[in-house]
Amino acid sequence: MSNNIKLTTLTxxxxxxxxxxxxxxxxxxxxxxxFEDSNLLVGFDKKDDACVYKVSEDKVVIQTVDFFPPMVDxxxxxxxxxxxxxxxxxxxxxxxxxxxxxxxCFPSCLEPSIMHDILQGGYSKIKEAGAVVAGGHTIxxxxxxxxxxxxxxxxxxxxLTNSNAKTGDVLVLTKPIGVGILNTANKAELLTAExxxxxxxxxxxxxxxxxxxxxxxxxxxxxxxxGFSLIGHGYEMASGSNKTIEFFSNNIPLxxxxxEYAKMGILPEGMYNNLEYLKDIFRVxxxxxxxxxxxLLDPQTSGGLLLSMPEKDAKxxxxxxxxxxxxxxxxxxxxxxxxxxxIIK
Length: 345
Known about the structure:
This protein has two domains: 7-158, CATH 3.30.1330.10; 170-344, Phosphoribosyl-aminoimidazole Synthetase, Chain A, domain 2 (Alpha-Beta Complex), CATH 3.90.650. 34% of the residues lie in helices and 23% in strands. The chain contains eleven helices and 13 strands.
């Protein structure tokens, strides 16, 4: 056993880029039976971030599960990123996490102390979220993986979905994108320690604060940006709402150097999977570079929230978000349905 093994050397893909491609997943899910229950308000057929089940007239439970292989070598940091990513789905649905259970796959070649550090990192973000850990499940596996099953609660009227965007809404993105590309560059040992820290800090930032900042404001639709990319999650919002989303490429917050690495061809496999699935649903206008298109298709790990809201509420929201981040920006708007779901300008 060794404490010197880098976690990322034990994986082929990392973070949300390790997810099964959307085309394959869709082909499987569409042939599965749909369960009917009047209390199931949001299920997997909605392509939303979590399921929502009504337990009483004034309370719903929000449940999600998410885990993946490491995108960083430090075990504690890996635990933080994985937990932050799993907790995010509850915030995206308008709820607050309450209960978490661990999911851990762990190789026999690693010391138990590394397992401890992964879990400890996850616990730190669960505690920050105000939730509790109540157990979990572990298996032996040559590829390390960690994540959570998370349950949260909300009032039925507080639930947000990704399918209620309104014509005239603007879109706010709360974190910069390019995480998948930068993590790929890091696996190739191209990043400085300072750059790795910058990317890590973005991934471990809880969307708790982005959710708290829209209290009292009108939010018509919400999702978090993860492995399906900004275009992919935007497509789910647009198609579910029967609208078209126009993204303004010059307004989208990017992690510095993401465009440069994309231009060099340092791209995760998940980007190509996203492109194959989404190539017929979006159009890029003149002036938008190939590398920008690649970044927009980049699978994010523990990305920010994408909110569809009236412009006046968005301006107030951005003012509140200045307390937490300089990155939150208006990145597009919602129009009536056009020939395609996504247009990049």
